[in-house]
Amino acid sequence: MRKIAANYVFPIAGAPIRNGYVKFNDNNEVVEVGQLAGECEDTEFYSGILCPGFTNAHNHVELSHLEGAFEQATGMSGFINQINALRNTVDEQGRIKALEFQMEKMYREGVSAMADISNCSESFPCKAKSPMYTRTFLELFGSEPKDAEDVLESGKRLAETAKEYGIDAAITPHSCYTMSPQLLAMAAQEGLGSGYLSYHSQESQEEEDLIMSGTGALAENYRGRGLSTPPVTGKPALVYFIDRLLSFSQSPVKGNILLVHNVAINQESIDYAKKHLETPFFAICPLSNLFIHRALPPLDLMRENGLQICLGTDSLSSNTILSIAKEIVCLHKNFPHIKLEEILQWACLNGARMLGKDDVLGSFEPGKKPGAVLVENLDWENMKFTDDTVTRRII
Question: Quick one: pLDDT at residue 195?
């Protein structure tokens, strides 16, 4: 039995507790949460705040070898050119070593669960051994309709490999601009059989321009490479995606559907998602969005609409660090009016809900095993993370 206390405990399931404590049994299950009444010899007291383990709601850990390789502020078109040129510039051994290092680092810094994107099997052995829970979304690409069946079959073979490693994994579509309408619908239907889907949604204005009017840098990039582009609809890109789902499913579409980035999300898109998706989640990756686009999601609009927001890091091809703490610092700097209590809800419990693991992870509640993270070096006056803030796993 361990009784761990700190200046503040953020249980997530309730209000922050000053001089709070969390008691864990020998299986690291939460037994009790409360406020210290006095000094106790059996209490481990830490200077900082204590919160449950984080959920990284969006990552591409297999791209960890690309740390420091990408030019920033290129927009989506420029980013695609770089990923095509640089993705395989490190050999397999180097790629695996890099992802193993980042997986261990994230766990040590407090990530208890992760929604990860994979295009190959290189991360599977590490995930199978890691104490971190992962759900792997096997992302499909393919702009040409004639290739849809072959791409889907390739994804199914990768899913079988994941099953051999005993990890939770299923096919998912990447985005509107990397897939033919046929492949998008086929991949989504296959993935929803697992109950979960991840989708890069409205990451940039370039994506919106492509779908709404067939114009912009992304459209020109694809045409310049002789690739097909999706149909022009005059509607937001998220509406286009949901309409592909409705081509094979009744409304509201069932399953935990994670919409990632949401930089260009608007009220029309939100209304359509709330009408036609049973349990949508909305992941934000602020440092990645600044890295590629120098733009951020309209968080106040998302909050006003009561969306279930999750927090992710994206990859080291579009970020300088895989750190939930640094993402929170970015949010504090750009949205200072949003309280830490709300942001930690995004970083811990909402992501666990999206992964279907909120019965175990995401909050300090009796019977759960969320892990415990100590956050040190805060701005106590404003209750915010700072550039000096560090997080480390206690349990």
Answer: 98
